């Protein structure tokens, strides 16, 4: 019976709210050091919101793009901006607008398992990437 149950499940690591807050704090520190206010979103592996902040002065609508970046990265298990540009519009439509190819989204991969995603938006693409990478570094996640 144990072998049958084992075939029906698999072990899964989960990003905790404490882990999400460590990543969020590291991202905020980097954004503050850069002088670039950001929207920072952290989701679990299923795209469920774990942590979010809109720093003072961050662009309002970038709140939506930061969420889409986090969900896209977690869903595809790869950084945003790596999708085939020919498929961008089709994928966005198929996902109800949740999928984006904008820079600034990364999967959170710990010990080879994707446990979530981070999305950063409000700066230039390279600034969003730098802030997200600071969060990943704080968790010891793969980039």
Which value, in Å, is the CA radius of gyration? Answer: 15 Å
In oligomeric terms, what are we looking at?
A: single chain
Order of helices and strands: HHEEHHEEH
Largest sheet: 4 strands, antiparallel
Task: Please count the helical segments.
Answer: 5
CATH class: Alpha Beta
Strand content: 15-25%
| Averaged pLDDT | 94
Strand order, largest beta sheet: 2-1-4-3
Strand elements, count: 4
CATH superfamily: Haem-degrading domain
Give the helices and strands, then pairings:
Blueprint: H1 2-8, H2 17-34, E1 39-44, E2 49-54, H3 62-76, H4 88-94, E3 105-110, E4 113-121, H5 125-139
Antiparallel strand pairs: 1-2, 1-4, 3-4
What does this structure look like?
By secondary structure, the chain is of the alpha+beta class. The protein has a single domain, classed as Beta-Lactamase, CATH 3.30.450. Helices cover 43% and strands 19% of the residues. The chain contains 5 helices and 4 strands. It has helices spanning 2-8, 17-34, 62-76, 88-94, 125-139; strands at 39-44, 49-54, 105-110, 113-121. The chain has a 4-stranded antiparallel sheet with strand order 2-1-4-3. Strand 3 (105-110) and strand 4 (113-121) form a beta hairpin. The longest helix has 18 residues, at 17-34. The radius of gyration is 15 Å and the shape is globular. The termini are far apart. The mean pLDDT is 94.
